[in-house]
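To whoever is on call:

I kicked off a structure prediction for a single chain this morning and the downstream step that reads the tokens threw a length-mismatch warning. I double-checked the sequence; it's 283 residues and nothing unusual in it as far as I can see. Pasting both halves so you can look.
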Amino acid sequence: MGLRREPTARQVRLAVELRRLREAAGLKAREAAALLGVSSTQINQIEYGQSGVSEKRLRSLAAHYACMDEAFVDALVVMATDRTRGWWEEYRGRLPSAFLDLAELEHHAAYRADVECLHVPGLLQTEDYARAVFSYRVPELPIEDLELRVDHRMRRRVVLERPEPVPYEAVIHEAALRIRVSGRAAAQDQLAHILALSEADHVTVRVIPFDRDGFAGAWNTMMLAGGAVPKLDSAQRDGPEGTALIDSEAQLAALRTLFRKLEAESLDPERSRDFMSRLAKEL
């Protein structure tokens, strides 16, 4: 089997975790290779996501690395052996890989959470809202590319609509609900859509109102996705250079704490629904 030309974010995450285990064990790549009876080149290819790894070899490596966390190793095995080709593969070569990686991440997530202060989270957007967001890009996207992005964003909602949906929580600032990225009717439809989704048992929407005292966290936009075990959680943040996936334990711990802080700043779900219902009448 040839080397992967463009490993997915999930494949890279598996590779990163295997490299971290080896380094924590104090072993060089050549030493790990000797334990398996393979070349150091093969270990490097595995640790950069360029090549897959069998369950037998993965468990052997974990044993040599003295990893005692069975649940973690089992989760890595699932990542290594899963052959799912989800709906997002239809967009490979047609959209940037980051779109596909996000859809795959959500498909496997144990939970999803968003914090947004200026835009409605992607999983909650209506088609008109998403189209307006993508249309604002400079330079403008060709119509075919724009519609591909809108279609992809709408299909991502399957994780909230499937028989076993992903538990989801969104913390949204009032500003994001008031900004009309399109027209008045689209804004009303967007609020109605969020209200309808918030009635589902697996969806929690919280609002941070403008009049909340002591709120200085408007820049804290983030996405959290739960892994099969907490060590495999992921986060995503937007920055000047683009979107970055975060997987370091220290940064994840900080973002989880920050999410709880922002959650505490928000209205509870029932009061948030009442707030959005009143806002819908004002728009």
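Update from on-call: the warning came from a stale cache, not from the record. Cleared it. Sanity check on the structure: The chain has a mean pLDDT of 94.
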